[in-house]
Specification:
Elements (H helix, E strand, L loop, with lengths): L1 E8 L6 H10 L5 E6 L11 H7 L3 H11 L3 E6 L1 E2 L2 E2 L1 H13 L8 E7 L7 H10 L6 E8 L2 H4 E2 L2 E2 L2 H20 L3
Parallel strand pairs: 1-2, 1-3, 3-6, 6-7
Antiparallel strand pairs: 4-5, 8-9
Helix pairs in contact: 3-4
């Protein structure tokens, strides 16, 4: 059985991106889904002096092993001032000190959502441009605008957006099925 990791690039306890990542990953059939919370992998603020003095945090190694051990990654990025959240960027920076190819070629469905009409489009563009340099195999992406208006406990409520998400999920599913570590 394929192992899918759902992860939000946020440390908010009420993260809408975590909710979206969890929901999307669980739309896949015949896979094991594990939802990861960055709050369970706290790390000090990255700095070369800190790394030299104390080494790489154990949680960076643990998180990297989880991501690289997966058969697929559903990552929903929170957008803070048009870019990654500080907690995601910090985790990403620490993991890249262990292995520059952080994502290890694992198929990735890249998501973003926000309360606003752009749905995290800026951070998605940054990630789609950056992640391939770090082993990111972004096979599909999806932006959900106006989260509270377009998402409910039943999922995506806007039918056009739902169709777009279904296409992204199918593309991701096909990539996961053929992925070999």
């Amino acid at each position: 059985m394929k192992n899918i990791i759902a992860l939000a690039g946020s440390n908010s306890k009420q993260s809408i991106n975590k909710e979206l990542a969890h929901y999307v990953a669980n739309q896949l059939e015949e896979v094991a889904v594990t939802t990861i919370d960055l709050n369970d992998f706290e790390m000090p603020l990255f700095g070369i002096d800190l790394e030299t003095e104390k080494g790489i945090p154990e949680n960076a190694t643990k998180l990297l092993e989880i991501l690289q051990g997966a058969d697929g990654l559903v990552l929903s990025l929170a957008e803070h001032n048009g870019a990654y959240s500080a907690v995601f960027k910090n985790s990403f920076d620490w993991m890249s000190r262990i292995d520059g190819k952080v994502f290890g070629g694992v198929p990735m469905l890249l998501l973003a959502t926000s309360p606003g009409a752009r749905g995290g489009a800026s951070v998605l563009e940054i990630a789609k441009a950056r992640f391939p340099y770090n082993g990111g195999n972004v096979v599909a992406d999806f932006s959900l605008p106006s989260f509270s208006q377009n998402f409910s406990s039943e999922g995506i409520t806007d039918m056009e957006l739902r169709k777009d998400l279904d296409v992204a999920i199918d593309t991701f599913k096909n990539a996961v099925e053929t992925f070999e570590k």
